[in-house]
């Protein structure tokens, strides 16, 4: 599978910075959050728990892989829930995910379309 990159260096399907996925308490995490995290640590559920990351094993295979669609979606949901989504504050949660008012506006537009279509 091809790796996705954003302008800051996030590498995975939903553009998690490695330090956000595995946890900012990881010894290599600072600055923009690229870290120097070996893949075996990045996907390890115990390491993610230890360092307070948002990575989740969404497909039940025992690892949290940001390059696996199910894991990435569940991890993004975990992140959004922790930043207000679980309390219904979608605007705050989406802004925490991407610090752009335009991005928040666009996402909420599609949320509204989806809700009205179901």
Automatic annotation (TrEMBL):
Gene3D superfamilies: 1.10.530.10. Pfam families: SLT_2 (PF13406). Residues 50-84 form the Transglycosylase SLT domain. InterPro entries: Lysozyme-like_dom_sf (IPR023346), SLT_2 (IPR031304). This is Transglycosylase SLT domain-containing protein.
């Amino acid at each position: 599978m091809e790796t996705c990159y954003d302008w800051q260096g996030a590498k995975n399907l939903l553009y998690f910075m490695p330090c956000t996925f595995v946890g900012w308490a990881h010894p290599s995490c600072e600055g923009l959050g690229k870290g120097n995290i070996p893949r075996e640590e990045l996907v390890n559920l115990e390491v993610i728990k230890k360092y307070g990351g948002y990575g989740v094993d969404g497909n039940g295979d025992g690892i949290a892989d940001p390059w696996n669609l199910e894991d990435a979606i569940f991890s993004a949901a975990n992140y959004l829930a922790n930043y207000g989504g679980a309390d219904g504050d979608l605007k705050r949660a989406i802004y925490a995910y991407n610090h752009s008012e335009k991005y928040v506006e666009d996402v909420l537009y599609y949320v509204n379309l989806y809700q009205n279509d179901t």
